[in-house]
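agent> Task received from the user: take the single chain below, predict its 3D structure, and emit structure tokens. No templates, no multimer pairing.
agent> Plan: (1) validate residues, (2) run structure prediction, (3) serialize to tokens, (4) report one or two observations.
agent> Step 1 OK, no nonstandard residues flagged.
tool_call: predict_structure(input=
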Amino acid sequence: MPSVIFYIFAAMMLVGGLMVVFMRNPVSSALSMVLSFLGLAGIFIGLNAYFVGILQILVYAGAIMVLFIFIIMLLDVKDEESHPRKGIALTAGVLIPVVLLIQLAGVLVTDEKSPSAPALSLNVAAEDYQQDSVIYKKLSSGSLPDIHLIGRKLFTEYNFPLQVIAVLLLVATVGCVALSRKSVAQNNRDKDSDIPDQG
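)
tool_result: status=success, residues=199
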């Protein structure tokens, strides 16, 4: 990936992340997160991780952000009111990114001294799979079947965590709908109590 394109996508990702924090409207913050996801997907695609980049667009910038926007609309989130401890929140909001940048600088300094990853031997890796499988055939021919390898890893070694995440997302969605119905019922009761008695 040319360095100019990398910096464009990195700037897009950082600007989107900053807009998520500084936008006061929750819907604008959610849409700014889409911009950040698109920048991250561009970096993945530039690193030849096409499958992960497309997943970043389809799953996160698409499905997850639609879910976020529906949740924001169902909860009827309003603009944040001024809080008496605004100074503490502002201090923490400045201090935490500074600590993160210090840690990142430490990682970048030690990056040159860290050992490089071993070269991928496709022929040796093919021996771990059955000879009639797609993974074995592609590894034997010298190509890397990243989609098949990710799918096999997810649905064999990480099948249980994957199912737990799916249940957690379902519970969060059901909880959001339950909270929004409770809020609507409370608003209706408040409106009914404001109507003067005609008797």
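agent> Step 4: summary for the user.
The domain at 1-77 is CATH 1.20.120.1200 (Four Helix Bundle (Hemerythrin (Met), subunit A)).
agent> Done.
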